[in-house]
UniProtKB/TrEMBL annotation:
Lineage of producing organism: Bacteria, Pseudomonadati, Pseudomonadota, Alphaproteobacteria, Hyphomicrobiales
Catalytic site: 135
Family statement drawn from the similarity comment of this UniProt entry: Belongs to the transferase hexapeptide repeat family.
Biological source species: Ancylobacter rudongensis
Name of the protein in question: PglD N-terminal domain-containing protein
InterPro entries the UniProt entry points to: AcTrfase_PglD-like, PglD_N, Trans_hexapeptide_repeat, Trimer_LpxA-like_sf
Site (Increases basicity of active site His): 136
Occurrences of domain PglD N-terminal (ranges): 5-79
Length: 213
């Protein structure tokens, strides 16, 4: 038997499972992995903790990691690699990918996502429903786009950045892209008009660093 798993049985994981099922061949089983759920089944699929999944007899095991926290996602990748567990890319049927797009391993592309032309995306990328990445963008590893993100052309998004629901990133220029720094967070509905330093959270229109009271 081959086991295909969605790591994470929370809301996003339950959205990803139907997309994973489309990639599961006859005779294989699709399951959830979750270390914090005390139920046996979710939406008709078995739920296993990591130890049970790793120990389960199977000729092949592959995982897609449906967890938004990029640091947790990276730790799970390392755990899978150490255990010889492979990865499966997940893509909705209505995703649009145009010319000269490269995508790293472990990506999840949800419904109505569009990647236009001349786009380079790293590993373990998440693009939630209705998000797009336009021409001449470079996206790092473990980047998350929440629903309805508009990433316009000539933008660089560095590793572990999180772009919140409905955020808009203004188009940069050739040789002078808008840069979202490593580990930066763009808040829900923010409109980014200039580069965001690494590790900084920005909110609002135009987006400015979040000031905590």
């Amino acid at each position: 038997m081959t086991l295909f798993a969605v790591y994470g049985a929370s809301g996003f994981g339950r959205e990803v499972m139907p997309l994973l099922r489309a990639h599961v061949p006859a005779g294989a089983e699709a399951v959830f992995i979750d270390d914090n759920v005390d139920v046996d089944r979710v939406n008709g699929h078995r739920v296993m903790n990591w130890e049970a999944f790793a120990a389960a007899p199977a000729s092949e095991k592959k995982v897609t990691i449906a967890i938004a926290n990029s640091q947790v996602r990276e730790a799970i990748v390392e755990k899978c690699l150490a255990s010889g567990v492979g990865f499966i890319d997940v893509k909705a049927d209505n995703v649009r990918i145009l010319d000269a797009v490269t995508l790293g391993e472990g990506h999840i592309l949800c419904g109505f996502v569009t990647l236009t032309s001349n786009v380079n995306i790293g590993t373990n990328f998440h693009a939630n429903i209705y998000s797009y990445v336009a021409h001449d963008c470079v996206v790092g590893d473990f980047v998350t786009l929440a629903p309805c993100v508009q990433c316009n052309g000539n933008v660089v998004i560095e590793d572990h950045a999180y772009i919140g629901t409905g955020a808009v990133i203004r188009q940069g220029s050739p040789g002078a892209p808008i840069v979202i720094g490593r580990g930066a967070v763009v808040g829900m509905g923010a409109v980014v008009t200039k580069s965001v330093p690494p590790g900084v959270t920005v909110v609002g229109n135009p987006a400015r660093p979040l000031v905590k009271s």
